[in-house]
Fold this protein.
Amino acid sequence: MKVVLAGATGTLGSALLPRLVEAGHSVVALTRSAGGARRVADAGAEAVLADVLDEPGLLTALRGHRADAVIHQATALTRTPVAHRHLHATDELRDTGTAHLLRAAEQVGATRFVTQSFFLGYGYRDHGDGWVTEDQPFGELAGDEFDVHLRSMRSNEDQVFSADGIEGIALRYGLFYGPEPGTRKLMDQARKRMLPVPRPSGVTSPVHIEDAAAATVAALERGRGGQAYNVVDDHPLGFDEYVTALAAAAGAPAPRRVPAWLLRTTPYLHALMVGTRIRLSNAKAKRELGWAPRFPSCHEGLAAVG
Ligand SMILES: NC(=O)c1ccc[n+]([C@@H]2O[C@H](COP(=O)([O-])OP(=O)(O)OC[C@H]3O[C@@H](n4cnc5c(N)ncnc54)[C@H](OP(=O)(O)O)[C@@H]3O)[C@@H](O)[C@H]2O)c1
C-alpha cells in the first residue's frame, strides 16, 4: 500500500516506518523539520514537510500525491506528561489534527485511516480486576479536569469511524516503553534513585514499542474498518512492579517507596500511577489482526532495553 504517515519521527513512528518499508509499503512521511526529513528519507520514506495543524499548508504540501491509507501517529509529548497542560498540544492533534488529516486522506484518495488512540480513554479511574475490552465505553466524560483529554480521544476515534468513504481504525495503545528516550530517561532517574514507587499503586497495561509498531502494520493490512483495538501486552501489572522492573533492568538499586498521597501535587501523574487500575485485554487484536506481542510482559521487554 502507499501510506501517508504523520508522526514518522516520533517514538512509535521511528519504530513503525522501517517495518512498513520492510513489509513492502511505500511511505510518504510528514515532518515539520529538515532534520526529520533527512531521518525519514534515510529510513526509506519520501519526506513531505508539513504541519498537520496547518490545514491549507498540509493540503498544499500533499498536492499531487496519491495514497491508499493515512496513519496518524502525531503527538506532542516530548516527555512523560506530569501535569494536565503537558497534554493540551496532543489533545489538539487528536481533535483538529485528525480533522485535517482526514481532509488530506480525501485529497490523496485514501480509503483507510489508522489513528493513534490511548488506553486511558477508558477513564482515569479504578476499573476493577476484570479485563477491559473494546466493548467498554470509551471517552466518557467524568466531569473533572480529565475531560479535555477524554473529549479529544473520543473526537479522534469518532471522526475516523464516521468519515465518509474511510475505513477508520483506532489503536488504543497501552503505556509505551522500549529502547526510546522516555524509557531511557526513567532508567537514568532510577539509577539516581529519583524514581519513586508509590504505595498503594495503580495498575497499568504496557506495550513494547516494537510490538506496538508490529500491531500497527497488522492493523493497516488486516484491521476491520470502524473498529478499535487494544494494543497492550499480556500482563497488566501494578505501577510499583513496573517501576521496580524498570530499576532492575537499569541495574539500579531498588526504588524508594513513597506514600501515594505525595504524588497529589502532580494530579496527572497521581492519576496515572495511583488512581487508575486498568487491565486491558488484547484478545481482539490477537484474534483479528493475527498479532501477538513478542514481549508478553514488560519484565522481558525491559530486560531487552538494557
Ligand atoms: N501510549 C503511550 O504511552 C504514548 C503515546 C505517545 C507518546 N508517548 C511517550 O511520549 C514520549 C514522546 O513521544 P513521541 O516521540 O512519539 O512524541 P513527540 O516527540 O511529541 O513526537 C511525535 C511525532 O509527532 C509529530 N508531530 C507533532 N506535532 C506535529 C504537527 N503539528 N504536525 C506534524 N507532525 C507533528 C512529530 O513530527 P516532527 O517533529 O518531525 O514534525 C513526531 O514525529 C515518549 O517517551 C513516548 O513513549 C507515550
Observations:
- The two ends are 35 Å apart (CA to CA).
